Amino acid sequence: MFKYHCLNPISAVGTEKFTAQYQKTDNAAEADGILVRSAAMHDMELPENLLAIARAGAGVNNIPVEKCAEKGIVVFNTPGANANGVKELVIAAMLLASRDIVGGIEWVSANKDDENIAKDAEKAKKDFAGTEIQDKKLGIIGLGAIGVKVANVAKHLGMEVYGYDPYVSVDAAWNLSRDVKHVLNVDEIYENCDIITIHVPLMDATKGMINKEAIDKMKDGVILLNFARDLLADEKAVIDGIKSEKVRKYVSDFPNPTTAGTEGCIVIPHLGASTEESEDNCAKMAVKQMMDYLENGNIINSVNYPKCDMGVCTQAGRVAIFHKNIANMITKFTACFGDNGINISDMTNKSKGEVAYTMLDIETPASEDIIKKLASIEGVFRVRVIK
């Protein structure tokens, strides 16, 4: 029996996928797995028995990922599950920024008591006139699940699309329209595009990448869209760009004191993935990944451990070892089993940065003594008996 705890409300479409082997608990301290959306976990004391954390969404800034890795706790996310919801809002953002729809709506609201509003609107509408997005150049920084969807829709809307991603995956490349111009230098995006949207993860290399230097390279009147993370942009530099009319509009999905209510900024209250469909998709994916890991030890879409899939174990036992990615570890593991006359029928070892994950299927169940010997090897974080 596995126990799971929800730190945030998780869609029932997902949690109903749990089988009779799973029991929900209101006590996080006794959970084998935790499901989370936005709840902050950095100051949370992680239970010793906790095996997995599944984030029903893509970003994991609210989870102490490295700390979890050192404890042998696998952290999952759900990349792509909310991609369509974000894609649709990005397309809406392009329209909101290109045509002053918000300004027009506010004018109508402000003049609601005017008996001649229809006639006056004909005179006022010129103040809200904008431009069409057809034939405009759209630059997409980051061709992951969301970036690819935005690119493909934009092509259908008649836009000329530039895409930049030095680490584009094979799956993304297959799904990307062949009409998208894949550029090798982000400066080509800055220098050529009328609208630029960013879809990369927040890390040291990307933090503040939309800065004064980048903005100076852009076309006059550029529209900037940020539906990834607010810290990807130096927003003070963006506002300076708005004041100088270098930047026409900045649309962000992340309200903060810098941009909220600021002229030239359209700030949305973090609605990118806030659709019923996205929440359902994220919940289903998170639950599925957690179940496969808890039952079989398989890891898919983890942010702190490598992908590893050995299917369902058909042997007498399966052991998983979380450890540092250093030399000679496999030799030490296999020796523990060999010295006790246990044959290893199948094995896989994968690494991700400084950590590694080893799974072994064995023909005889591992004794408690063997598990203790494995756990005592220097560099081992955790040993888990799956079967």
Q: What do these coordinates show?
A:
This protein is of the alpha/beta class. Helix content is 32%, strand content 21%. It is built from 13 helices and 16 strands. Strands 8-7-6-9-10-11-12 form a 7-stranded parallel sheet, sandwiched between helices. Helix 3 crosses helix 6 (145-156). The model has no long low-confidence stretch (mean pLDDT 95).
Which terms summarize this structure?
387 residues; alpha/beta; seven-stranded parallel beta sheet; 21% strand; elongated
Number of helices: 13
Radius of gyration: 25 Å
Principal-axis shape: elongated
Query: What is the N-to-C succession of helices and strands?
Result: EHEEEHEHHHEHEHEHEHEHEEHEHEEHE
Largest sheet descriptor: 7 strands, parallel
Which regions are unreliable across 5 or more consecutive residues at pLDDT < 50? none
Give the strand content: 15-25%
The percent range for helix content is: 25-40%
Distance between the termini: 13 Å
Derived from helix and strand composition plus strand pairing, the structural class reads: alpha/beta
Assembly annotation:
single chain
Count of extended strands: 16
Q: In which order are the strands of the major sheet placed?
A: 8-7-6-9-10-11-12
**Mean pLDDT across every amino acid position:** 95
Write the layout of secondary structure elements.
Layout: E1 2-6, H1 12-15, E2 22-24, E3 33-36, E4 52-55, H2 65-70, E5 74-76, H3 83-98, H4 101-110, H5 117-124, E6 137-141, H6 145-156, E7 160-164, H7 170-175, E8 181-183, H8 186-192, E9 195-198, H9 212-217, E10 222-226, H10 235-243, E11 247-252, E12 265-267, H11 276-296, E13 317-324, H12 329-338, E14 344-352, E15 355-362, H13 368-376, E16 380-385
Parallel strand pairs: 1-2, 1-3, 3-4, 4-5, 6-7, 6-9, 7-8, 9-10, 10-11, 11-12
Antiparallel strand pairs: 13-15, 13-16, 14-15
